[in-house]
Amino acid sequence: QVTLRESGPALVRPTQTLTLTCSFSGFSLNTTGMSVSWIRQPPGKALEWLALFDWDGDEYYNTSLRARLTISKGTAKDQVVLTVTNIDPVDTGTYYCARGIFSGPIGWFDPWGQGTLVTVSS
Amino acid sequence: SYALTQPPSVSVAPGKTARVTCEENNIGSYSVHWYQQKPGQAPVLVIYSDSDRPSGIPERFSGSNSGSTATLTITRVEAGDEADYFCQVRDSSSDRWVFGGGTKLTVL
């Protein structure tokens, strides 16, 4: 059974750096075609893809947020970490991590973690 | 830039067929995936690669993709199908993953 769980602060002050951790089980990032992605959703709004880390160690980023995002493997086994610098109230929302599956040029997300709500406020 | 357009809302009576569309020029050349999100819950994959169903997803859910429109079809709609539905593609030319704006399905 594949599971993912997000962890991180619920409240962040503007201009600070947000660090989120995705802990997963049931699959390996060493397996071809596997990846972990971060996706966020402002309250009442659409999903927005942020970043992805794949089995080959490659990193992919939303180009509009690239300068503020870093995705990496965590220090513990089976973890992927996302950092978002210079956080702003517009970054408020639920942050999800999800397993990304590649099949050639195609990629989808399944399953997703339960999400963690991050509020940016002074 | 690549943008997927979905109608904000679709309404359907129980037992009828609902169709949720996702539009972009030449979307038929991409593989489209669909997610269902119920209030307060994480999204769940219901269709991948245009028309494949993950295990556990009812046969009432199906997908198609051609030209400039991809469609998620739900037959014999039930009250439990009321949710937001999002389409998604991977733009391999730019290595970006893109979501549509979402469609709220209301069961009357």
Radius of gyration of chain A: 14 Å
C-alpha termini separation of chain B: 36 Å
| Helix count from the secondary structure assignment of chain B | 0
Largest sheet of chain A: 7 strands, mixed
Mean pLDDT of chain A: 96
Tell the overall outline of chain A: globular
What integer is the average pLDDT of chain B? 96
Overall geometric form of chain B: globular
Helix and strand content put the structural class of chain B at mainly beta
Largest interface: A-B, 24 and 23 residues
Poorly predicted runs of chain A: none
Distance between the termini of chain A: 40 Å
**Could you give the order of the helices and strands of chain A?**
EEEEEEEEEEE
**How many extended strands of chain A?**
11
What is the helix fraction of residues of chain A, given as a range?
A: under 10%
Q: Poorly predicted ranges of chain B (pLDDT <50, ≥5 residues)? A: none
| Content of β-strand of chain A | over 45%
Percent of residues in β-strands of chain B = over 45%
What's this entry about, in short?
The complex is a heterodimer of chains A (122) and B (108). With 122 residues, chain A is mainly β.
